[in-house]
Design brief:
Largest sheet: 8 strands, antiparallel, barrel
Radius of gyration: 48 Å
Structural class: alpha+beta
Number of helices: 15
Length: 855
C-alpha cells in the first residue's frame, strides 16, 4: 500500500515539471511562419523546418508568482491502531488538534501546501474480550507537504463550493504515556467485577484491597517502562496523508475548508502495542494510523496578483490580431512620412510637408504656410495666429490689456452695499478661542453675557465674542465692563473678511481721529528686570478714586485706555499682593527696557496731555508736589475702597469672579453629539453655537431680560420648524430654573427644562429628506447617460450655486429607503457613482448631520 502512494506522488511531480517546460502553440498562431523581404509568407519545407533560434522570438515560460494562502484550523484526532478490537475509535472520544498551512497554487487546479499539526491521540480499553484494560495518550507534532487537486479544469469556473483530494508526505513525532497510577501514586488493578482497586485480585492480601478511581492523568512514559522489551525505539516516523473535502468560497480573500485526512504512518509504536508484545498486550500486524477531521479558515494573498495576471493576459490578448509589421509602415495623415518618423501627426490632407512631416513655413514665423495670411513676414517679426506682423502700438495695447495695473481695461461691477460693508472693520471683544469644548461652568458664564456671539475659525476652533462695534472706543468700553465682571483675558479684536485680528494698540499714546481719548500702556519690572506678572494695577484719579483696573501679563505689561486729555492719573499697585514681597522696588520701564520711574513703594503720576511715549511720562513737578497725599490714599487702598463703595461699584477689591448683572433668557434649539451645518439654521440670524467639554454642540438664539419676548421667540421657533425649542435662563454665570427667572406662564409645558448634559433634537425631523444623486454635469449629460435617465422615475435636475446641474432621484424620509434605491440603480443600470444625499428644509447637508438630527 505504502509503495503505491510513493509511485503516485512521484508521478504527479514529474507530470507538473514536464508541463512547466512546454510552450503550447495555439491554433492559428503564426508566430513561427517565415516571411520573405516583402513580407509574404513562404511555404514550409524540410530545408526551412529548422531555423536559427535568434530568428524566432522565444515565448516566455509562465511566471510563477509567489502569493501564498495562509490557513488556520482546528479539528479532532481519531486513532486507528492495536487498541480496540475493531481497529477503530469512535469520534466522540477523539482528541483536539490544530493545524496551520501555507499553500501556493502551481496551477489553477493544483495546490502545493506545507502544513504543521499539533494535537493529542488517545485510546482507552475497558472490558475488552481479552480483558487487558489498556490506555494511552500521545502528544503528536506533524510537519509535511502535500499536493491538492481541486478539479478546477473539470468544473465550472464560477462556483462557490469546490471538492478536493490531496496526497502528501510528512514527518511526525509522538510521545506516548499511559495512566497507570492515581493521584496518590497507587497502581491501578482491574478486577473481574469491573472495579479498580489498589491490589491485584490474585494477591494473597486481596481482601484488604480498596477501590480507587482513575484520574485520567497520563503520567507513565510507555517507552521508558519497556513493558515488552522493545528498548529505546524511535518516537518519530513518517506518514502518507490522504485527504478529501470541500472548500467554500466566502469572498475573494477568504475560503472556508472542511475535510478529513487519513495519516498512514510507518510505525506501530504510537500506542506502545505491537504484534510482538507479550501476553494479553499482543496486538495486530498493522501499523498505527490516525485521522484528522477539521475545518479551517484560509486567507488568500494571491487574489490581487491573480487578477493582475489575468488583466495582463487579457490586455495581451487584445493585440493578438494586431499586425505590428504593418503598423511600422503606417502613415495616418497620408503626408508621405510614416508615423514613426512624423513629428507633426495629423497634418491636413494635401498640405506640403518637410522631411519630418511638418507643414512648410517659408518665412519661419512659426505659422505654417497653409494658415499664414502673410507668407513673407520680415525675419524675427512678431506675428499673430494668422501670421500677420504686429505693430508696436498693437503690441503695447495687448501688453497693457494683459497686465492692466491701471484698471483702464477693467469692467465696472456695481455691488450691493452689504458687500462694501463686509470689507469694513467690525470690532468686538474676544472672550476666548477654544479648540475643545467649554467646561460646564464656563459655558454658563458665557451664556450669561447677553451680547455673546460665536464663530468657527479655519483651524476648527470656536471663537466667542461679545458685542459688535464700528469703532475701537466702544469696544474698549465693553471690554472694561467684562474685565470688571471677572473676564480678565478679554481683549478687543476686529473682524475683516470673516477673520478676526487683535486690535489692541501697540503704542503708549493712541488717540482716535478727533483726539478725544488717550491710551496708556506700560511695563513693570523689578530692580533685576524681573517682570511683575499677574499683578493688579489700579489707575486712580487725583481724588483717590479707582478709574480702571487691569492685570499685568507674563511680561509685566499693562494697558489702560479711554483717558481724557489733560487728565492727571496715578498708577498704583495693590500692596496686599503677595508677589510684591519679593520685590524691593518696582519700576515703570520703556519698550527698550529703560527705567522711567519707581512705582513701588513710591507711586507715579502722569499728565495724559503729555503722554506720547514712555520716556516722556515722567510726572510734572506741579503734580509731584501733591503726590504724597495720593500715595497715602493708595497705600490704604482698602480704606479708599470701603469709603467709595456706595458711590463707585468699580472700586471694590472683593468683587466676585463673575458678576453679570440681571437675567439672560435664551431659546435653545437643540443639543447634538455632532456639529450641524449652518444650512440647518439658515433662518436664524443670531445663532450661538457652544461646544461643551462633554462633546455636545448646543445651538441657541435670542437674548432677553424678560419672559414675554423670550416666550414669543420660542413660539416663532416652534412654528419655523424647531418643535423641540425651549427657554433657558442664566444669571451671574450660572444656569437657573425658569421659575427662579420669574416664569409665571399658565401652561406648564412651556417651562419644561432639560439638563445641560443631555442631547436633545430641537429641529423638525420631518424636514430631513434623502435623495439619490446620479450625476452632476456642466452641460447636457452624454447620450448614454440620457438614455438611462429616461428610464428613471421622479428624475429631477437641480441647479447648483456654481452653475452645474445635479440630477437626483426619489425623495425619502429614511436613509435606508434611499440606500435601497441606490443599490437598485447600480445593479440595474450600472451607475456605480450613484450615492445618497440629504437635505434639511431643501438645503443640502451631510449624511452624518441628517442621521444626527433623526436620532
Amino acid at each position: 500500500m505504502i509503495h503505491k502512494f510513493k509511485y503516485i506522488l512521484v508521478f504527479l511531480l514529474i507530470t507538473y515539471f514536464s508541463y512547466a517546460q512546454t510552450v503550447p502553440i495555439e491554433k492559428g498562431d503564426n508566430s513561427l511562419k517565415l516571411t520573405d523581404d516583402n513580407g509574404s509568407n513562404t511555404k514550409s519545407n524540410k530545408s526551412t523546418d529548422f531555423v536559427k533560434s535568434d530568428s524566432i522570438k522565444k515565448q516566455p515560460s509562465p511566471e510563477l508568482i509567489v502569493t501564498p494562502t495562509i490557513g488556520l484550523g482546528t479539528g479532532m484526532f481519531s486513532f486507528y491502531g492495536d487498541l480496540y478490537n475493531k481497529h477503530f475509535q469512535a469520534p466522540m472520544v477523539s482528541r483536539l488538534a490544530f493545524d496551520l498551512s501555507v499553500s501556493q497554487p502551481i496551477q489553477d487546479y493544483l495546490l502545493l501546501s506545507f502544513h504543521v499539526i499539533f494535537g493529542k491521540l488517545g485510546a482507552n480499553e475497558r472490558f475488552a474480550p481479552n480483558n487487558r484494560n489498556l490506555n494511552f495518550e500521545s502528544q503528536i507534532r506533524v510537519g509535511g507537504i502535500n499536493l491538492e487537486y481541486n478539479f478546477d479544469n473539470l468544473l465550472p469556473p464560477k462556483r462557490t463550493i469546490s471538492p478536493y483530494v490531496s496526497l502528501g508526505f510528512e514527518s511526525f513525532e509522538f510521545l506516548s504515556k499511559i495512566d497507570r497510577k492515581d493521584k496518590n501514586g497507587k497502581t491501578y488493578y482491574y478486577w473481574a467485577d469491573g472495579t479498580i482497586r489498589d491490589k491485584d485480585e490474585q494477591a494473597t492480601d486481596a481482601g484488604l484491597a480498596i477501590e480507587i478511581k482513575r484520574d485520567y492523568t497520563y503520567e507513565s512514559d510507555i517507552r521508558e517502562m519497556n513493558l515488552d522489551n522493545f528498548g529505546k525505539y524511535p518516537e518519530r516516523s513518517f506518514a502518507i496523508p490522504v485527504g478529501a473535502g470541500v472548500v467554500l468560497k466566502i469572498n475573494d480573500f477568504f475560503d472556508f475548508k472542511m475535510g478529513a485526512t487519513m495519516h498512514f504512518s510507518f510505525t506501530d509504536y504510537i500506542d506502545g502495542v505491537t504484534e510482538k508484545s507479550t501476553g494479553n498486550r499482543k496486538g495486530n500486524s498493522r501499523n498505527d494510523n490516525f485521522m484528522m477531521t477539521s475545518f479551517s479558515l484560509h486567507y488568500n494573498l494571491e487574489t490581487k496578483a491573480r487578477e493582475k495576471k489575468k488583466a495582463t493576459k487579457k490586455l495581451e490578448n487584445n493585440y493578438n490580431d494586431v499586425d505590428f509589421a504593418a503598423l511600422e509602415k503606417d502613415d495616418y495623415d497620408k503626408d508621405g512620412v510614416i508615423d514613426w518618423n512624423d513629428l507633426c501627426a495629423g497634418t491636413p490632407p494635401g498640405v506640403p510637408v518637410d522631411v519630418n512631416g511638418c507643414p512648410k513655413d517659408d518665412d519661419q514665423d512659426g505659422i505654417p504656410n497653409y494658415r499664414d495670411d502673410e507668407l513673407k513676414s520680415p525675419k524675427n517679426a512678431v506675428v499673430n495666429t494668422r501670421g500677420l506682423q504686429l505693430t508696436d502700438s498693437l503690441i503695447a495695447y495687448q501688453y497693457n490689456l494683459y497686465m492692466d495695473s491701471t484698471g483702464d481695461f477693467g469692467l465696472v461691477d456695481n455691488r450691493d452695499p452689504a458687500y462694501n460693508k463686509s470689507k469694513q472693520k467690525e470690532y468686538a471683544v474676544e472672550l476666548g478661542t477654544f479648540k475643545k469644548g467649554l467646561p460646564a461652568n464656563l459655558m454658563t458664564k458665557f451664556l450669561s453675557i447677553n451680547d455673546i456671539s460665536s464663530a468657527n475659525t479655519g483651524d476648527s476652533s470656536t471663537i466667542y465674542t461679545a458685542g459688535k462695534f464700528t469703532n475701537y472706543e466702544d469696544a474698549e468700553k465693553r471690554r472694561q465692563e467684562l474685565i470688571k465682571d471677572g473676564l480678565a483675558d478679554a481683549k478687543v479684536v476686529y473682524k475683516l473678511n470673516s477673520k478676526y485680528y487683535d486690535a489692541t494698540p501697540a503704542s503708549i499714546a493712541v488717540s482716535n481721529d478727533n483726539g478725544s481719548s488717550k491710551d496708556f500702556t506700560g511695563k513693570l519690572v523689578g530692580s533685576d528686570k524681573t517682570p511683575l506678572a499677574n499683578s493688579k494695577v489700579n489707575l486712580m484719579s487725583e481724588k483717590g478714586q479707582i478709574l480702571q483696573t487691569t492685570t499685568t501679563d507674563e511680561t509685566g505689561a499693562f494697558h489702560f485706555t479711554l483717558l481724557k486729555p489733560d487728565q492727571f492719573v496715578l498708577v498704583a499697585l495693590d500692596e496686599q499682593d503677595t508677589q510684591l514681597k519679593k520685590f524691593k522696588k518696582v519700576f515703570l520701564v520703556t519698550d527698550k527696557g529703560d527705567k522711567v520711574e519707581e512705582i513701588y513703594p513710591n507711586n507715579i503720576a502722569f499728565n495724559t496731555a503729555n503722554n506720547k511715549n514712555i520716556a516722556s511720562n515722567i510726572a510734572n513737578n506741579n503734580y509731584k508736589a501733591n503726590n504724597t497725599s495720593a500715595k497715602n490714599n493708595t497705600n490704604s487702598n482698602n480704606t479708599v475702597t470701603a469709603n467709595n463703595q456706595a458711590n463707585n461699584k468699580n472700586i471694590s477689591s472683593n468683587s466676585p469672579v463673575f458678576t453679570t448683572p440681571g437675567i439672560v433668557l435664551r431659546v435653545q434649539l437643540g443639543a447634538y453629539k455632532k456639529r450641524l451645518s449652518k444650512a440647518v439654521f439658515r433662518d436664524i440670524n443670531d445663532l450661538i453655537e457652544i461646544r461643551t467639554d462633554d462633546g455636545l454642540y448646543k445651538y441657541m438664539t435670542g437674548s432677553f431680560t424678560s419672559m414675554e419676548p423670550a416666550a414669543k421667540l420660542k413660539t416663532d421657533m416652534l412654528l419655523s420648524g424647531y418643535p423641540g425649542a425651549f427657554i433657558t435662563a442664566y444669571k451671574d454665570g450660572k444656569r437657573i430654573t425658569l421659575k427662579e427667572a420669574g416664569a409665571t406662564l399658565a401652561n406648564k409645558d412651556n417651562i419644561t427644562e432639560t439638563a445641560d448634559n443631555t442631547a436633545v433634537s430641537g429641529v423638525n425631523k420631518k424636514l430631513v429628506k434623502f435623495k439619490v444623486q446620479i450625476g452632476v454635469f456642466k452641460k447636457q449629460p452624454p447620450d448614454n447617460k440620457l438614455a438611462i435617465f429616461a428610464k428613471l422615475k421622479d428624475l429631477n435636475g437641480e441647479k447648483t450655486s456654481s452653475g452645474l446641474t445635479r440630477y437626483v432621484v426619489g425623495l425619502f424620509n429614511s436613509y435606508k429607503e434611499a440606500e435601497d434605491l441606490k443599490n437598485v440603480i447600480i445593479k440595474t443600470y450600472g451607475l456605480t457613482d450613484a450615492f445618497v444625499v440629504a437635505t434639511f428644509n431643501n438645503e443640502y447637508i451631510s449624511i452624518p448631520e441628517a442621521l444626527e438630527i433623526l436620532k
